[in-house]
Write a structure and sequence with these properties.
mainly beta, ten-stranded antiparallel β-sheet
Length: 129
């Protein structure tokens, strides 16, 4: 298992714009052609730790959180995923893999079938040397 630095820049746009930036040390491995990135993050109050796994395939990204937060989001361009409580509609998904990988996602977030925000998510993976 190798180590990478995960850099996340998330922008949420509704009546105002919020930006969240995060950086973490992650374990990364490949299995059956799928790239897995696993890291831990703390909530905004630094109280509860959440384990996050990114499952990166050629045409989709699955983000799974367990621990302080329980959540799964699947991003595939032109598709909707989720349930009535929380759903994402992916408008654009760009995955570039290599020594430095970049994932760009533009999506809309719906809660109880009601639009909440348009979002941009950029994830960068860099070697942790």
């Amino acid at each position: 298992m190798n180590k990478v630095i995960v850099k996340i820049n998330s922008k949420q746009k509704n009546d105002k714009q919020n930006t969240i930036k995060m950086k973490a040390l992650a374990n990364v491995y490949t299995k059956n052609g799928i790239l897995y990135v696993i890291y831990k993050e703390k909530d905004l109050n630094e109280e509860k730790e959440t384990s996050t796994m990114l499952k990166i395939q050629e045409d989709s990204l699955t983000l799974t959180r367990t621990g302080g937060v329980q959540q799964q989001q699947v991003f595939a361009e032109g598709k909707e995923s989720g349930n009535l409580k929380m759903k994402v509609k992916t408008h654009r998904l760009e995955i570039i893999t290599g020594m430095k990988s970049t994932i760009k996602i533009d999506y809309a977030l719906y809660i109880n079938n009601s639009w909440q925000s348009d979002n941009e998510l950029m994830i960068r993976l860099e070697p942790a040397n």
